[in-house]
Amino acid sequence: MTALTSLTANQQESIIQCPVCGSICSDTPIYKYSAVEAAAHFCPVTRNSQRNQRLLQSIRQLWKGDECSIIQCHECDFAFAYPYVAGDEQFYSILHEQYGYPRWRWDYDVAVKAVIDHSQKGRILDIGAGTGNFLKSLDSEWETYAVEGSDTTRNELEKAGIKVFPSLSDVVIKEAETFQVVMMFQVLEHIGEFQQVLAQCYQILKTQGKLLITVPDGKAMLQQEKITGCPDMPPNHLNKWTAKNLSLALEKSGFQVESVIKEPPSWQHLAYSLQLKIMHNAASNPNSIAARIYRIPNRKLRIPLLSLLAPISLFQLAGSINQLLQGESFGILAIKPSPN
Ligand SMILES: [Zn+2]
User: Fold this and answer.
1) Cα of 259 to ligand 1 centre, how many Å?
2) 56 CB-near residues (< 8 Å, 6+ apart)
3) Distance in Å, CA 17 to ligand 1 centroid
4) What is the dihedral angle through the alpha carbons of 82, 237, 298, 132, rounded to the nearest 10 degrees?
5) Which of 81, 138, 164, 213 could form a disulfide bond with 142, CB atoms 3.0-4.6 angstroms apart?
């Protein structure tokens, strides 16, 4: 919390401090976004103007203004949104009206291969468990726990026999030093108080307990943004992590980093980049075919029509296909070491 507090205090003096390593960063941003651009990114006016306006209002409240920059630290390469403010419950409740939870992901395979297959069974906690697909896949010798903020999702998890806490602070109070394994899949890119979260993970793990974190690869995100033109927009993603700066943050919290696992290349990544390119084409020209298709409210009609535009985007991105096939995420496995 120290760096975060000093960051907020320093904002008035325009001194920007890296939330990970504490270095003073250049105030020249690598990107700058307006609240209008951000709201249009998450929900175009032409799709649903009422939702777009609610998002705009929520983003302005978060940023306490109309602008957000992306700053990169020259010391540890960490890139972050400035103002350094994460999306709140209101922002995500509007956003979640249009997105669902994915069923199975690369992260889960990593968790099984790197952790589950090599650990003594015991208590396992999934922070930000969503609908609990990963925990539900484990055999009954694991005692499954979840941290999940949403009331509706909490009920669903409890029905599946998972013990649920509304916040990580509750776990620290009730279950300190009892967990064998803690998982955090695609969470740490969204939150500002990551130091506090890592400290709490340390508190709840047993000695030699394992922490597995997966996040989008910050370097890949910046590259994808440059190639497709489609922003990795705050306040959804606040942090762009790399193996180097996430290792540093973990070590500062007392962890020992065991291994870094990179997501392998896949055609799915290229398909996703094509989708981003189509989104960018639609956003940059309201008269384009892409923009016209985006205005179609019926999803069942819109999605197949958009996919017809994929060959055009593929042609536009032809020079960068190799980069766009690369993994978009990475995982870090860390251990709570024995006291000296
Ligand atoms: Zn830094």
Assistant:
1) 21
2) 35, 36, 38, 39
3) 8
4) -150
5) 138
Task: Calculate how far, in angstroms, residue 107's C-alpha sits from the geometric centre of ligand 1.
Answer: 26
Tokens of 290: 């892409």
Maximum Cα interatomic distance, the chain, rounded to a whole number of Å: 66
pLDDT over 70 percentage in the chain: 94
Cα 101 to ligand 1 centre (Å):
32
Where do the DSSP E strands lie in the chain?
Answer: 16-17, 24-25, 31-34, 67-72, 79-82, 123-127, 143-147, 163-165, 179-185, 205-216, 239-240, 256-262, 329-335
The Å distance, Cα 20 to ligand 1 centre, comes to 5
**Cα-to-centroid distance, 13 and ligand 1 (Å):** 19
Whole-number Å distance, alpha carbon 271 to ligand 1 midpoint, is 32
Q: How many A from CA of 171 to the centre of ligand 1?
A: 30
Give the span between the Cα atoms of 240 and 69, in whole angstroms. 13
Q: How far is the CA of 40 from the centre of ligand 1 (A)?
A: 30
Q: What is the pTM of this model?
A: 0.88
Interval 11-15 mean pLDDT: 63
The C-alpha atoms of residue 320 and residue 82 are separated, in whole angstroms, by 29
**Ligand 1 midpoint to CA 242 (Å):** 11
> What are the start-end ranges of the E strands in 195-255?
205-216, 239-240
What stretches of 248-292 adopt beta strand conformation (E)?
Answer: 256-262
Q: Is the pLDDT of residue 2 over 50?
A: no
Give residue 14 CA to ligand 1 midpoint distance, Å.
17
